[in-house]
Amino acid sequence: MRAVLTEPPGGLAATRITEVPEPDVDPDEVLVEIHAAALNPADRFLIDGRYPGGPQPPLIAGRDAAGIVLKGDRANRFPVGAGVVVLQSTLTDLAHGTLCERQRFASSTLAPLPAGWSHAEGAAAPLVFQTAWQALTCRGEPSPETTVAVIGAGGGVGLAAVQLALGLGMTVVALARADDKLRRLRDLGVGHALSLDQPDLKRAVHSALGRKGVDIVIDTVGGPQLGAAVHLLAPRGYVAVLGVLGGVDGVVPIPSLMFKRASIHGILVSGSTPDEAQAEWRRIVDVLERGRRRPIIDRCFPFHEFAQAFARLGEHPFGKVVVEMRRQG
């Protein structure tokens, strides 16, 4: 079968489509014909050898996918021909990823492709929406009275967080830099879409809301934004940190953290057990379906244009970049 294989020493220049052996499927695993795989920054980190603790090449990158069951497990949890998506959990195999024509997965890491969804939409959802869900619910599922600010709202996880928060009836403050992304966030129904480059971001957010602080800040950027995130909080609020694109080090304003009795939570989507991932996914799909929302896709690329797909990912698009092994319809 064909796969996007990264060979030593790593990097996109050492990554190409090549023939690799067919997956060796265990009795408790399912063989899936992959129709679509969505790209994430973590995939590029893995290819470039910058993923903390990640495997060394040779490897097949990719974590998100949707496709069709070719061979079920011995419990017949998923019949042949069923549409499935791949969830993120402690069983995620970073060395044997989804940028290939066929792959084996533990049946506990698969979920049915939601009715009416394309394979591209199914592939675009799990990693970003599971991450966003964990960030929104790490203290329990929020009520409609909850306010959330999303730093980096135009990115993959940020956009997922905005869609889920709107679906839960929360008040959303979407923070981004590009004017086009701010406009598109408003088109999605966000009432407060503000530029991250404001000279006094805290005052701008407080003024927009008519109150001092938000209950949750989702920081998808990291680095110096962490300090700004703490300053945006209301008393007893929390910051969910889930990105390092802005840097791996951040300075926390300790007095603000203390006097607000606030907290900081680290989010790692691959820390969920398969059972936890299944429960997360069911609620995610329910919230999206009730709000008549779907994962937002920027662009789909054919399999042989995977390098162009990674280039597009590096341009920070609004929505997910998807590689299609088989075009649907």
UniProtKB/TrEMBL annotation:
<dbReference type="InterPro" id="IPR013149">
    <property type="entry name" value="ADH-like_C"/>
</dbReference>
<dbReference type="GO" id="GO:0016491">
    <property type="term" value="F:oxidoreductase activity"/>
</dbReference>
<dbReference type="Pfam" id="PF00107">
    <property type="entry name" value="ADH_zinc_N"/>
</dbReference>
<dbReference type="InterPro" id="IPR051603">
    <property type="entry name" value="Zinc-ADH_QOR/CCCR"/>
</dbReference>
<protein>
    <submittedName>
        <fullName>Zinc-binding alcohol dehydrogenase family protein</fullName>
    </submittedName>
</protein>
<dbReference type="InterPro" id="IPR036291">
    <property type="entry name" value="NAD(P)-bd_dom_sf"/>
</dbReference>
<dbReference type="Pfam" id="PF08240">
    <property type="entry name" value="ADH_N"/>
</dbReference>
<dbReference type="InterPro" id="IPR020843">
    <property type="entry name" value="ER"/>
</dbReference>
<feature type="domain" description="Enoyl reductase (ER)">
    <location>
        <begin position="10"/>
        <end position="323"/>
    </location>
</feature>
<keyword id="KW-0521">NADP</keyword>
<dbReference type="InterPro" id="IPR011032">
    <property type="entry name" value="GroES-like_sf"/>
</dbReference>
<dbReference type="InterPro" id="IPR013154">
    <property type="entry name" value="ADH-like_N"/>
</dbReference>
